[in-house]
Amino acid sequence: MLGLYIHIPFCEKICDYCDFFTIQGPNRLHGEYLDLLSREISAFGKRHPGVFSQVETLYLGGGTPSILSPEALFRLFSILGEAGVPLLSLKESTMEFNPESTDSERLSVAVENGITRASLGLQSFRPELLQAVGRRHTPESGLAALEQLLSKPGLRVTTDLMFDLPGQTLSHFLEDLERLSAYALGHISFYGLKVDPRTRLGHRLEKGLVQVDEDLYGDMYREGVKFLESKGFERYEVSNFARPGEESLHNLNYWRRGQYLAFGPSAHGFFEGVRYHAPDRYPEWRRYVEAGCPENLLTRDPIGQEEAIAELIQLSLRTKYGLDVAALQELGARLPEKSVSRWVAQGYLKWLGGNLVLDGDGWLFMDTVVADIYSNLE
Ligand code: SF4
To answer: Which atom of ligand 1 is nearest to 135's Cα?
Structure first.
């Protein structure tokens, strides 16, 4: 399957924990950005004629895609349509929304241009927690945006929550999940806060101005999973939960090592055996596009056998489908029997047919399990 990711690198205000490449740019940059994006997409199309007609899933991420005005959003879809992306017949077409910029006009433009799935960043329903991480929206505006998205016929909605925020207790997190589960959602994601020391929140933590109780991380994750499972959601990836048939096809393609094209500063793609990304920062990306998008200015990592083995283990173990041992053998690697038996005996891994799948606290210690298996491969 071929996916397409478009990065919209703008946000109204940078959240205190954010370590993405995003800018608090003035709206006048949006027009320039779309001009450049159009040139980047068309340069790729010239090198790979017909490629955009093969796209099956689209994901507009960021940054904040919904920051674009309805007119700018319409232009973005026109650029994609003119490149040959079959916008109205994709298998899935997702757009990220923030509560501050969810409105009926933008929503209409999105849905009329094929968006079938909206992803809303809510993070929490507690005002003091939203403030603690520098989010601009309020619980009320978050709920209003959620209701507006859910009222759009045919639109699937997913929302993001965060846990282990400064000052957050286990019951705060479970109350957020309880509140969310009252809505007709097919998909929910939750992510533990990871603080990059270079962010504003990182500086505040370092100075001791805020505290994060890391001991709560495990309890919040376990209890959050238990709660969502009791409401009929299944964990199909470490941070993603869906009712049957509501999984994100675009994201599943990432974890299955499928191909996807990516455009915009810092957007990462995987095509014809090469992982690549354009310059991360906006000014460098602008220079790259103005120079005609030469491939030598891309960061390119051809994926050989070793890298493919590492990716297969790392990506497949994130999901409920797990690691297909036959696929690993086809790449020329064999599982380390001793390591695997030890993790299985500890209840961190289990066998599902010919696949090795995370189990119990294995989901919490996924990185350790993956690193151990990879470093001991036979
Ligand atoms: S809205 Fe998302 S991308 Fe933008 S600053 Fe906040 S966390 Fe970062």
So the answer is: 6
How far does residue 132's CA lie from ligand 1's centre (Å)?
14
pLDDT band at 20 (very low <50, low <70, confident <90, very high): confident
Ligand 1 pocket check for 14: Cβ under 6 Å: yes
- What's the length of the chain? 378
Q: Convert 170-210 into a string of H (helix), E (strand) and C (coil).
A: HHHHHHHHHHHHCCCCCEEEEEECCCCCCCHHHHHHHCCCC
3-state secondary structure of 128: helix
DSSP letter (8 states) at residue 295: G
Task: Answer whether 99 contacts ligand 1 (Cβ < 6 A).
Answer: no
- Find where tokens 């891309």 sit: 298
> Is the CB of residue 11 below 6 angstroms from any atom belonging to ligand 1?
yes
Rounded (5°) CA angle 346-350-356: 125
**Residue 84 — pLDDT band, cuts 50, 70, 90?**
very high
**Residue 68 scores a pLDDT above 80:** yes
182 burial level (CB within 10 Å; 0-12, 13-18, 19+): exposed
User: Which residue has the CA at smallest separation from atom 6 of ligand 1?
Assistant: 15
Q: What local confidence, expressed as pLDDT, does residue 214 receive?
A: 86
Residue 26 pLDDT > 80: no
DSSP state of 21: S
| Alpha carbon of residue 129 to chain centroid | 22
Q: Is 64 in the pocket of ligand 1 (CB under 6 A)?
A: yes
Count, in order, helices (H) and strands (E) of the chain.
14, 15
Q: Determine whether the shortest distance from the Cβ of 61 to ligand 1 is under 6 A.
A: no
Measured by CA distance, the residue closest to atom 3 of ligand 1 is 63
